[in-house]
Amino acid sequence: MAFWSDAGLEPKRKHKFLVFVGSLPAILAKSVNKPNADVTVGEHKFLGNTYKFPGGIKWNDVTVTFVDTENDQIIQQIHNTILRDAGNQDPVTKGLALNGGGVLGLFDKSSAVSALKANGSGVIIQQIDEMGRRIEEWTLYNAWISKIDLGEVSYENDNQLSEYKLTITYDWAQLTQEIAGKTIDEIEAPEIAGAVQSIGNVRTSRRS
Question: Could you tell me if residue 36 is inside a domain?
Fold first, then answer.
């Protein structure tokens, strides 16, 4: 049945979403691309033919676009809190630390990932319905900020908002989707249990 003939079927809307990056205000997010993955391909050549085999999965970076405001000072929050907790220090601070005037901080993955979790819940992308209920959620694991693009300023357009982009790198993403108020795990678990029970019944009948 086509969706336009079913009044109870509602397609997902692109403009109904929430994205959480650390403690940055979700209301200021303008856009974000969903996680996508590439399957690497291995090749083997034999007698003039090429045979391809699937390799591993590589999750591609996610880019979040925010608008900045005078009151929130999000850029300052990123530099003074998130990057600092990730191990970033200016050369003066590093020089003082090397001379015994403080603790030397250096970037590492653990600190970069912990910086987003310490200042929020990491990185989560949600699509919501017309009632604001979560219908799709992507959780990015071991996520950290790999690029900060503060955009540009220009006299050419006086009606554009000041925007900046954050590139998020992560190891993998996990999807939680809700159907009729139940998550995929809640829907699949009874089906799996039923399938296991059916196999057990077949084995029992064969033994008897």
Answer: yes
Is residue 23 one of the residues assigned to a domain? yes
1 in any annotated domain: no
* 13 vs 125, more confident: 125
Question: Among 22-36, 38-52, 86-100, whose mean pLDDT is lowest?
Answer: 86-100
Under the phi-then-psi rule, with left for phi > 0, alpha for psi from -120 to 50, and beta for the rest, what region is 126?
beta
* Residue 53 near residue 44, CB atoms below 8 Å: yes
pLDDT given at position 162? 83
pLDDT of residue 178: 67
CATH number at residue 84: 2.30.110
Angle at 11 between CA 10 and CA 14, to 5 degrees: 130
How many whole angstroms separate alpha carbon 175 and alpha carbon 57? 15
d(CA 145, CA 78): 10
Verdict on whether the full-model pTM lies above 0.85: no
